[in-house]
Amino acid sequence: MGRAIGKTGVVTALGAMSGTSLDGVDAALLRTDGRQITEFGKSGYRAYTAAERRTIAAGFGKWHGPEVEAAARVVEDAHRALLGDFEGVDLIGFHGQTLAHAPRTHGTLQVGDGAALARDLGVPVVWDFRSADVHLGGEGAPLAPFFHHACARHAGIEGPVGFLNLGGVGNLTWVDPAIDAPEAEGALLAFDTGPANAPLNDLVQARLGMDFDDGGRLARRGTVETGALELFLAEPYFARMPPKSLDRNDFAEMVALVSELSDADAAATLTAMCAAGVAEAMQHCPRPPERVLVTGGGRHNPVLMQMLGVSLDCPVAAVEEVGLDGDMLEAQAFAFLAVRVARGLPTSCPGTTGVRAAVGGGTVSLPGGADPA
Ligand SMILES: Nc1ncnc2c1ncn2[C@@H]1O[C@H](COP(=O)(O)OP(=O)(O)OP(=O)(O)O)[C@@H](O)[C@H]1O
Ligand SMILES: CC(=O)N[C@H]1[C@@H]2OC[C@@H](O2)[C@@H](O)[C@@H]1O[C@H](C)C(=O)O
After folding, report:
1. What top-level class of enzyme does the UniProt entry assign (predicted)?
2. Residue 28 beta carbon below 6 angstroms from any ligand 2 atom
3. Which residues contact 204 (CB under 8 A, 6 or more apart)?
4. Which of 4, 161, 165, 226 is deepest in the core (most CB within 10 A)?
5. Measured in Å, how far apart are the chain's first and last C-alpha atoms?
6. Cα of 170 to ligand 2 centre, how many Å?
């Protein structure tokens, strides 16, 4: 595997993402020149075992120390096992696992050593995508928006559209696909909407030993507690203008807001909080989107999708409606971003992270030390 990727032309990149919900690692191939999507390729998934998940979760909110080291080893090993299955790869985009994110104070930490993966897999690896943006005053997140822009154009969407990712945390990208460069003023506005599945996962894990509320079955039986919902919406985060981003556990106290409720009512209320955070986010869009396309695991929850349909003023559908794969979009995003980094193209801009000027974040590590270009 692995050959020089050059400055132009279409290459095969493999993107890998380990998200905040800690279910596992997603990996996907993408053929691209870093500007346009040429072709989507094979994808793969490796779930974390319960023990691995515990080791990673023990590192959440920490910046260094033995828990961080242990989490990094688990993340790296899981990626090594999964990424080694792919062939014909020119470049890997390795996001790693976010353990802590506080861009204005400490910075942002994604663990897993991309240089070690490059050496072991024999392919150049682009990693540490967020630090350069944070150093230039940006939030370091979200980074998928440049890829959402390429997706909108690939899908032939003409009017303004929203991409809503519902993982552990929610993030919205407003795209004007009529503007051809993602870094051009007015093409993108992006930010985290609030907590998505993380508080609900934590609740059902703690109370029922379940990983998540499969199909929204629990929430469907419950009633939303409007008092708790109002307290949640009083959080200043929602009215704050973008740019803004969140750490996984920034809203951990939400689970306390529902602690007195029955399992079903608590699940219904946390699900409603996710949808309400998204509804609040719409006020920040430069123009109303013609529709919102949902990606990430939350789109598999019909109760959440129904709540979104009721609370947004435009049609809401899974990204599959325009031919995209909502389980792999983030992995594909880091394949796309890796090619941009290797070619010196920006990966974030003032509209996506609040960074001072468009910047390409990421370190390129080579298997043997030569220049990838
Ligand atoms: N069938 C389902 N029913 C209900 N919820 C689901 C279903 N499938 C997935 N989910 C939810 O989606 C979550 C996984 O989403 P996803 O893989 O997009 O998260 P992530 O990539 O780890 O997070 P992030 O985007 O915040 O980094 C699960 O933990 C669960 O809460
Ligand atoms: C710091 C960090 O890892 N943030 C994640 C997280 O998960 C969802 C949301 O919060 C988003 O801001 C980001 O991930 C996606 C892939 C992004 O950067 O676009």
Report:
1. transferase
2. no
3. 210, 211, 212, 213, 218, 263, 267
4. 165
5. 15
6. 8
| Assembly ipTM | 0.98
d(CA 135, CA 356): 10
369 DSSP assignment: S
CA 256 to each of CA 272, 322, 349: distance values in angstroms, whole numbers, following the listed order:
15, 38, 36
Q: Which domains does the chain have, with CATH numbers?
A: 11-138 (3.30.420.40), 156-322 (3.30.420.40)
25 marked as part of a ligand binding site: yes
- Residue spans of the chain under pLDDT 70: 1-4, 369-373
* pTM of this structure: 0.97
Any binding-site annotation on 55?
Answer: no
Q: What is the pLDDT of residue 371?
A: 46
DSSP state of 322: G
Query: On the CB side of 322, how many CA atoms lie within 13 Å of its CA?
Result: 22
Q: Ligand 2 in contact with 171 (CB < 6 A)? A: yes
Query: Residue 243, preceding bond cis, omega within 30 degrees?
Result: yes
Which atom of ligand 1 lies at the shortest distance from residue 196's CA? 26
Cα 132 to Cα 138: distance, rounded to the nearest angstrom: 9
